[in-house]
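Why should sequence recovery work at all? Because a backbone constrains its sequence more than one might expect. Tight turns favour small or flexible residues, buried strands favour hydrophobic ones, and helices have their own preferences. The token representation captures these environments compactly. In the example below, the structure is given first.
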């Protein structure tokens, strides 16, 4: 069965950094596009970053551009989100998501994704 497991969340001061990891199993990771989403209570789930199956193309939300970096290691069946210069408004539950695709396409809509992790809390204190 497919599993996505996030790790690396926690409490950090503003200006600090965290690196989220998403370990996957039960899927052909190299054929899956990946995305990182975040959600705060009362708001819709927001795509903060996405990456194609090859890693050749990436997308970033304007709110995180220049601060966050998405990457993947197909040999380790894992995706990552490096978050630098964190701000209190980055506080949210962060989710990784995947979908099988034969195309080098970026997906930003949560409805485009088939599999989700359980989420990891990121809290940035001011």
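From this structural description, the recovered sequence reads:
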């Amino acid at each position: 069965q497919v599993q996505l497991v996030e790790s690396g969340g926690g409490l950090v001061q503003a200006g600090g950094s965290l690196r989220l990891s998403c370990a996957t199993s039960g899927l052909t990771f190299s054929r899956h596009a990946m995305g990182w989403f975040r959600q705060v209570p009362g708001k819709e789930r927001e795509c903060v970053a996405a990456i194609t199956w090859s890693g050749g193309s990436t997308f970033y939300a304007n709110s995180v551009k220049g601060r966050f970096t998405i990457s993947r290691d197909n040999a380790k069946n894992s995706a990552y989100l490096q978050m630098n210069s964190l701000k209190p408004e980055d506080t949210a539950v962060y989710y990784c998501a995947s979908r099988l695709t034969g195309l080098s396409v970026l997906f930003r809509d949560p409805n485009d994704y088939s599999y989700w992790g359980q989420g990891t809390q990121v809290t940035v204190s001011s």
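A few observations help interpret the result. The mean pLDDT is 97.
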